[in-house]
Amino acid sequence: MNTSHLIIPDTNMFENEIIIHQKWAGASWMSSVSGVMVKFSEELGPADFQTYPSNVLLLINEDDYVAESRTYKTKLAKFYNSVINCEGLKGTVICVKSSDLTDTGFIALQTFCIIDLGLQIIPIRNIASQLPQLLVQFSISNNRHRKVNPFKFGIDTNESNSSTHGYPDPKLIETLSTIYGLSDLKARLLLEKFGSIYEIARLSVSTMAPVIGTSAARFVFNFFHQKRN
């Protein structure tokens, strides 16, 4: 039976262990993965990595979503179907975005991940320097208390998100500012006022306009509410 489309997670993995798809064995960035145990597997299907206990991650390169390519949809569809068909798995997409020239494609990718599929997405600029750190962080963070994930629309009800409790997470600002027509400053103002991307996605133009202006408010509203193919 062909299991290339199936994720068969390792249920016996240890804390601080990372399982990496066999195809990455020998990759130059592997030498930078330190402080954790590494094991290779051919049973991750469309996923690239698994961290303890049941987090699976897919890596999307810029070549997958540039103007001439839409291969990311096929990859994401296979990954999504594998995740939802395996009870207990949590799927996350790691996206390489090293050039501003791919902004349009990245927005489409981000929309497809978050809005259409409900998958978390984390952008990185460089595989060699950032991917190893991210994988190690995923492994380590599972042993700590639960935190807000800035890359999905969920809210941690145990933590206040209002502007009276500190500056918004820079990663939240970075994610929100990928919306066309929304600057970093206006993204920060929205987060300071409304607290989370989840809340912002539910706002009307008239509610956002006093904070960031009517034009930017329309860009944000259209991003979250336009129909997807």
From TrEMBL:
<protein>
    <submittedName>
        <fullName>Zgc:162267 [Danio rerio]</fullName>
    </submittedName>
</protein>
<dbReference type="InterPro" id="IPR010994">
    <property type="entry name" value="RuvA_2-like"/>
</dbReference>
<dbReference type="GO" id="GO:0036297">
    <property type="term" value="P:interstrand cross-link repair"/>
</dbReference>
<dbReference type="InterPro" id="IPR026985">
    <property type="entry name" value="FAAP24"/>
</dbReference>
<dbReference type="InterPro" id="IPR040646">
    <property type="entry name" value="PND"/>
</dbReference>
<dbReference type="Pfam" id="PF17949">
    <property type="entry name" value="PND"/>
</dbReference>
<dbReference type="GO" id="GO:0003682">
    <property type="term" value="F:chromatin binding"/>
</dbReference>
<feature type="domain" description="Fanconi anemia core complex-associated protein 24 pseudonuclease">
    <location>
        <begin position="17"/>
        <end position="137"/>
    </location>
</feature>
<dbReference type="GO" id="GO:0043240">
    <property type="term" value="C:Fanconi anaemia nuclear complex"/>
</dbReference>
